[in-house]
């Protein structure tokens, strides 16, 4: 199971993610994103499922596309997500999965940061001796 650390970056926030494999890295990055978006991710219930399929030219760009897809869905569907079942291809250039969440309920969900986008600035995805590491800055 992966872990994520949030760090300040000028007017933005950064996420550092460690995980055993690429699928875990992407799942953990999504969880980290929603830890930034909401004050308490545990209040989000996985009531409705949505399919996701993405392809890109590198693991770095795929991670960026993945997080931006989630941000886009928050903004356009007015929903929050709690479960991220994702399978990333071995080459890190495509993913398929199912995300689950629910419409934003102001009585139960305390929003913390409005995340506008994941950015290319300082974007890193690399294999390490004990798994995978990523660092990404999100514009708030």
From TrEMBL:
Residues 5-140 form the Archease domain. Keywords: Calcium, Metal-binding, tRNA processing. Pfam families: Archease. SUPFAM superfamilies: MTH1598-like. InterPro entries: Archease, Archease_dom, Archease_dom_sf. Transmembrane segments: none annotated. Belongs to the archease family. This is Archease. It comes from Paludisphaera mucosa. The lineage of its organism: Bacteria, Pseudomonadati, Planctomycetota, Planctomycetia, Isosphaerales.
